[in-house]
């Protein structure tokens, strides 16, 4: 991929990011870019890290245009209700009559059954920090490696990485919910009753001051 006088092959060693990773970042196919990668790109092109982290400008725009003439990303007008973990656990039951008091705006083409959730806890560190927001679409079936919200045995939502593990003797899909933080346990669907609620479509991180 070519842009701004560089291609991802020539730029990768300059920013100390593996070329395949840099290519995915520029193409926008990486759902949750690492903070360290964003820091390196921002420093190299002399742009504000805040703009990259917040999504105010896209990595693709920075790559194409450098530090000037940056195309700002579309904020969007679609309203996504911001709910809590208990509400997420019973979203299908309450969505019809749910009256949200907080919303996120997005430009994503997602279903009307999507919702937003604020990350809590440390089980998904370092990629997802407490206070980050994620947008979940209940109409999207997860692929291996996707991040999902699921209902656990306590009837409350949990946010983890989806890892399929095959089919059991009853013909049922077996999968794991995997934390990114090794200090937390992996949950298996053949050991604990868990149900996928939806798949993450967007991740937003807000820098604290």
TrEMBL record:
SUPFAM superfamilies in alphabetical order: lambda repressor-like DNA-binding domains (SSF47413), LexA/Signal peptidase (SSF51306)
Keyword field: DNA-binding, Transcription, Transcription regulation
Record GO terms (molecular function): DNA binding
Domain of life: Bacteria
InterPro entries in UniProt: Cro/C1-type_HTH, Lambda_DNA-bd_dom_sf, LexA-like, LexA/Signal_pep-like_sf, Peptidase_S24_S26A/B/C
Residue ranges annotated for the HTH cro/C1-type domain, each copy included: 14-52
PANTHER family for this protein: FELS-1 PROPHAGE TRANSCRIPTIONAL REGULATOR, PTHR40661
Stated name of the protein: SOS-response transcriptional repressor LexA
């Amino acid at each position: 991929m070519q842009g701004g006088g560089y291609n991802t092959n020539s730029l990768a060693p300059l920013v100390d990011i593996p070329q395949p990773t840099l290519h995915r970042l520029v193409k926008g196919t990486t759902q949750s870019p690492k903070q360290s990668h964003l820091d390196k790109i921002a420093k190299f092109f002399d742009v504000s890290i805040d703009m990259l982290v917040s999504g105010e400008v896209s990595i693709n725009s920075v790559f194409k245009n450098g530090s000037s003439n940056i195309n700002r990303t579309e904020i969007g007008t679609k309203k996504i209700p911001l709910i809590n973990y208990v509400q997420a656990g019973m979203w299908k039951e309450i969505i019809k009559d749910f009256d949200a008091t907080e919303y996120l705006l997005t430009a994503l083409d997602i279903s009307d059954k999507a919702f937003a959730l604020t990350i809590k806890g440390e089980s998904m560190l370092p990629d997802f920090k407490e206070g980050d927001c994620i947008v979940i679409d209940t109409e999207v079936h997860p692929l291996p490696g996707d991040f999902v919200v699921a209902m656990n045995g306590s009837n409350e939502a949990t946010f983890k990485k989806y890892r399929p593990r095959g089919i059991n003797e009853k013909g049922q899909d077996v999968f794991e919910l995997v934390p990114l933080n090794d200090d937390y346990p992996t949950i298996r669907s053949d050991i604990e009753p868990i149900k996928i609620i939806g798949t993450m479509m967007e991740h937003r991180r807000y820098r604290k001051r």
